[in-house]
Structure formats: C-alpha cells, structure tokens
Design goal:
Blueprint: E1 9-13, H1 18-29, E2 33-38, H2 41-53, E3 57-62, H3 68-82, E4 87-90, H4 105-132, E5 136-140, H5 153-173, E6 179-185, H6 191-194, H7 204-208, H8 219-230, E7 241-244
Parallel strand pairs: 1-2, 1-4, 2-3, 4-5, 5-6, 6-7
Helix pairs in contact: 1-2, 1-8, 3-4, 4-5
This protein binds nicotinamide-adenine-dinucleotide.
Length: 251
C-alpha cells in the first residue's frame, strides 16, 4: 500500500532520542529518505540502523541547531545528496526548569537558542527548498507553549515562540503551497522528562496543573501526529498548534 512518503526527503532534528528518533523511524518505515540529525552523534547511528533494518534509507549528520551556519549547511547537504527537501521536522529541544528570578543568562540563552533559534535557523534554510516541492514543516512546540508552566520561563517562552513562528510561516507561505504546523505535547516518556530537575523548593501543585490526566504519551504517538501533519491527507491543514495532552489544554 502506498504511504505518500515514498522517495520523499525528510530532515529530522533531535533524531538521536525520544520523539525525534521515533519521528525519523516513522518516516523511514513509510519509505521516506531520512536525514537524521542531532548534536549527539553516538546515538544517531542507532536511529539510522533502525531505519535501514526496516528497509528504509537514512543518513546521519552531526548538527547543533543553534548554530545558524551549521543549520544551513545541513539543509544544503541533505538537498544536494538527495536532490531536494520535502519535509522538515524540527524536534530538537532542551528543558530547563528554575524560578524565573533565579534563571541564569546562560540557561535563558541556551534554551531560547536551541528551541526557538534552532527552529528558525532550520526553517529559514529549508524554506527555499520546500517551496520548490510544496513541502511542509512540522515543529515540536509543547503544551508549555500554550499554557504557563511554573518554573519554565525560558522553556515556555521558547515554545510559545515556536507556536508563533509556526503561525507566521503558515500564513506567509500558504499561497505558495508550503504548510507549517506544530504539535504541542504534554508529558512524553523520553529522557528529557525523566532527566529534568525542578528547583529544590518547587510547589508540586503548580507543576501538576500541567496535566489533567496523570498519564504520559509515548514518543511514537507524537511521531504519528507529526507524520499525519506532513502527509497528503493533511493537505488542507496549515498553521495549527495541535495539543497532544489528554485534554489538559481544553481544561
Ligand atoms: N518529553 C516531553 O514531555 C515533551 C513535551 C513537550 C514537548 N517536548 C519537546 O519534544 C522535543 C523532543 O524532546 P524529547 O522529549 O524527545 O527529548 P530527548 O531529550 O529524548 O530528545 C531531544 C533531542 O534533541 C537533541 N538536542 C539537544 N540540543 C540540541 C542541539 N543544540 N542541536 C541538535 N540537537 C539537539 C538531543 O541530543 C536529543 O537527542 C523537544 O523539542 C521537547 O521540548 C517534549
């Protein structure tokens, strides 16, 4: 059965772990050619290996998305190697929780630089290629980009920025056939969520407000939503910020 992704060229950031890895594998399993990029090269080989094992085609590229020149170089290399770029999935991200009044300049700049800057740098480099193929961008924002998450000043600001950037690009390029959407997951079972440390004196009540139902989403479920938004079946969907959160945003 045709998947609609045969031969499509997809670039995924953050592909070494969690949602990015699941996304790269989901596109690969549907016959896409997947450029798997991440700052952590050791684990990238596992993603590429999994795609190749399922019969797909993939390449690994080391990439710090916060480095604008490196972002451009990665897009160009991918487009050159495979003759274009059809889909960009901006997944790479970092989380830092702290009291707003204690957050360091370094943490603020790092979180904004990777989550928002990286999404912008990758999109800016990819758009000329995507416009040639009526392609699309799917960004991974967060429920934290739609609601206030205590201790998440930098993270929430970066993800709200990703939601805004998604909408801006969706409107700006709609008439030229480029679609831009984002997903806004709540808690997803990945190293990002299991490894975070809240401030010592955090108020659990405030943290719990971000989940209506005490459940985590699997990375593969988020990947399926990303694949759907990038698919021909979603051809009329543009500029959405899709919560994947058991109803928390609706509450
Ligand atoms: N896990 C959750 O609960 C959750 C919820 C909402 C949104 N998100 C978002 O999902 C995305 C993926 O996170 P995850 O949960 O899979 O976490 P993860 O830690 O498993 O994966 C994040 C990946 O991004 C990579 N990365 C970090 N900095 C980078 C950089 N500068 N350049 C390139 N790659 C870099 C990491 O090496 C890692 O492989 C992030 O944008 C995160 O904010 C996660």
């Amino acid at each position: 059965m045709e998947t609609g992704f045969e031969g499509r060229v997809v670039l995924v950031t953050g592909a070494a772990s969690g949602i990015g890895r699941a996304t790269a594998e989901a596109f690969g399993a549907r016959g896409a050619r997947v450029a798997c990029t991440d700052i952590r090269t050791d684990q990238l080989a596992e993603t590429v290996g999994a795609i190749e094992k399922s019969g797909g085609e993939a390449m690994a590229m080391a990439l710090d998305v916060a480095d604008s020149a490196a972002a451009t170089a990665a897009v160009e290399r991918c487009a050159e190697q495979w003759g274009g770029l059809h889909i960009l999935a901006n997944v790479a991200g970092v989380l830092k929780l702290d009291h707003a009044h204690q957050l360091s300049d370094e943490d603020w700049n790092r979180v904004l630089g990777i989550n928002l800057g990286g999404t912008f740098f990758m999109s800016r480099a990819a758009i000329p290629h995507l416009l040639e193929h009526a392609g699309c961008i799917v960004n991974v924002a967060s429920l934290a980009g739609l609601k206030g998450q205590a201790y998440g000043a930098a993270y929430c600001a970066s993800k709200a920025g990703v939601v805004a950037l998604t909408r801006v690009m969706a409107v700006e390029y709609a008439a030229r056939g480029l679609r831009v959407n984002c997903v806004c997951p709540g808690g997803v079972d990945t190293p990002l969520i299991s490894g975070f440390t809240p401030p010592d004196d955090f108020d659990p009540e405030l943290v719990n407000r971000l989940s209506l139902v005490p459940k985590m989403t699997a990375p593969a479920e988020v990947a399926e939503s990303i694949v759907y938004l990038a698919s021909p079946a979603a051809g009329s969907i543009n500029g959405v910020a899709l919560p994947i959160d058991f109803g928390t945003h609706a509450s």
